[in-house]
Design brief:
The chain contains 5 helices and 5 strands. It is an alpha/beta fold.
């Protein structure tokens, strides 16, 4: 039996967390958290296969701050980190990639985009881990 992918989702919007969890309910073990601190804590305890981080969070930390903290953990240098954001202006994708994200999903998202982007990044990760 194939082991399920481990997916960490950080979003302060409950509907977004529920949506991603629903899409992956049979495909992955999903930890969906609301705060930056919870995401950092979860990543310190578990090695995820893919991490999806909302950028604009309530509180002091942004998704970019969380990315930088999680990248410090052992074995997280190659784990795909995907920016998940309503920032969808020209140049935003490039900005997030330059900050260290591996990919970008804009909101509102479609199930097809979510599955496609996560699958593409998971395949790349499995080739290098």
């Amino acid at each position: 039996m194939e082991e399920k992918m481990k997916l960490l989702v950080l979003d302060d919007d409950e509907m977004s967390r529920l949506y991603v969890s629903y899409v992956y309910k049979n495909k992955a073990l999903v930890d969906a958290v609301e705060t930056a601190e919870a995401a950092i804590s979860k990543a310190s305890e578990t090695l995820y296969d893919v991490v999806i981080l909302d950028i604009g969070l309530k509180g002091k930390l942004t998704g970019m701050d969380v990315l930088k903290e999680i990248r410090k953990f052992p074995d997280y240098d190659k784990v795909p980190m995907i920016a998940f954001t309503a920032f969808a202006m020209a140049g935003d994708r490039e900005k997030f990639l330059a900050e260290g994200f591996d990919d970008y999903i804009s909101k509102p998202l479609s199930k097809e985009d979510l599955l496609s982007i996560v699958d593409k990044n998971l395949k790349k990760y499995n080739e290098v881990k």
